[in-house]
Design goal:
Layout (H helix, E strand, L loop, with lengths): L1 E2 L3 H9 L15 E5 L7 H13 L3 E5 L2 H10 L4 E3 L8 H12 L4 E4 L7 H16 L3 E4 L2 H7 L11 E3 L3 H10 L8 H11 L4 E4 L4 E6 L7 H4 L11 E6 L11 H21 L12 H24 L5 H5 L2 H9 L9
Parallel strand pairs: 1-10, 2-3, 2-5, 3-4, 5-6, 6-7, 7-8
Antiparallel strand pairs: 8-9, 9-10
Helix pairs in contact: 1-11, 2-10, 4-5, 10-11, 11-13
Length: 339
């Protein structure tokens, strides 16, 4: 079990961060989609999508119900909002439009503001299947975890996914995959990952535990056809992110995390496609690197906001701190360009 202080991990994360040297055009630093947002939940998809942009992606899309669209649009003109999740629309009718939209994105975050209404859950399952067909990176959070909890085969073995459960969600996942409740706490995330066929698990807590365990599991075909093959012999890695965070945990911080994981995974997709970098890092490493990087950024963001606002801090206060937190951890990335 490693701490995030391991320089080799941080060096790998730096390699999948796009350069700021003027060489990339719009979209080559990441296009993120967030699927969520219904009548009662408009803040969560906003926080996830805008956090991805604050971390540094070029474009953030929110795919939501029409009942949430106007509110989300009013929060920021920077987000592209698609109010296509209509309760009366049959899933088969939505599939072509949704597939076309997802084909333009690098990563899909499922769950922030999704809710548990059956029509939203149905659309989440549809989006998940389309994303897997297209070989997208995935982040599953909040009620997206409820979706996959109803059928673990939706996500089992799909190693381009990162799950971000809180303490209650992690307990439910542990029970669903049959983890002995007497298992040592430090071993549980790895065993949940193993039970899900090697999916990356980011267990949120006082410290964040990030685990990948592919021992004895078969990978989905999408990895076997990747430009860079993963480790086929089995991989077990647990990283504890002990970056200091704020002392108050307010609702919405998890949405900043899921959006940040989405940003790093979008960069990973751009790196994989050759938009930048040298393709030296295996695709199989991307989810755990993205999870670690996003955890570090979110915790540092929380600390910086708490230092300023104290007990009064709310998630909105954290958004303006994301950029500074990123620079504190990974540098500005600025280079001198000769025009």
């Amino acid at each position: 079990m490693d701490d995030v202080g391991d320089r080799s991990v941080e060096d790998e994360i730096l390699q999948i961060i796009p350069p700021l040297d003027g060489s990339l055009h719009k979209g080559q630093s990441g296009r993120v989609g967030v699927l969520g947002g219904a009548l009662d939940y408009t803040g969560a998809p906003f926080f996830a999508a805008i956090s991805a942009q604050r971390v540094g992606v070029d474009l953030s899309h929110v795919i939501c119900s029409p009942t949430a669209a106007n509110a989300i649009k009013s929060y920021s003109p920077d987000l592209i909002v698609h109010p296509i999740l209509r309760e009366e629309t049959p899933p088969d009718s939505l599939r072509p439009e949704l597939a076309a939209l997802l084909s333009r994105l690098h990563v899909l975050v499922i769950g922030p503001g999704l809710g548990r209404e059956e029509y939203m859950q149905t659309f989440a399952r549809l989006a998940l299947e389309i994303a897997k067909e297209q070989g997208m990176f995935l982040v599953i959070d909040a009620d997206g975890l409820y979706t996959v909890g109803g059928n673990l085969d939706l996500i089992r073995g799909y190693r381009r996914a990162v799950l971000t459960p809180n303490i209650v969600e992690f307990k439910r996942l542990s029970e669903l995959v049959g983890i002995d409740p007497d298992t040592r706490p430090e071993d549980r995330a790895s065993l949940v990952s193993k039970g899900l066929g090697g999916v990356t698990v980011l267990q949120k807590g006082k410290w964040d535990t990030i685990a990948v365990n592919t021992e004895g599991a078969e990978s989905r075909a999408v990895h076997k056809t990747s430009k860079i093959s993963p480790h086929e012999g089995g991989q077990k890695e647990v990283i504890i992110v002990n970056t200091p965070g704020g002392l108050k945990r307010c609702g919405g911080q998890g949405d900043i995390l899921s959006g940040s994981v989405g940003a790093f995974l979008a960069w990973a997709k751009c790196y994989e496609s050759g938009a930048f970098g040298d393709n030296a890092i295996p695709v199989s490493r991307m989810p755990i690197l993205a999870a670690v990087g996003a955890s570090m950024v979110t915790r540092t963001t929380s600390r910086r906001a708490f230092e300023e606002m104290g007990r009064a801090v709310v998630t909105q206060d954290m958004l303006s701190k994301i950029g500074g937190a990123f620079v504190e951890l990974f540098g500005s990335g600025d280079v001198e360009v000769a025009w």
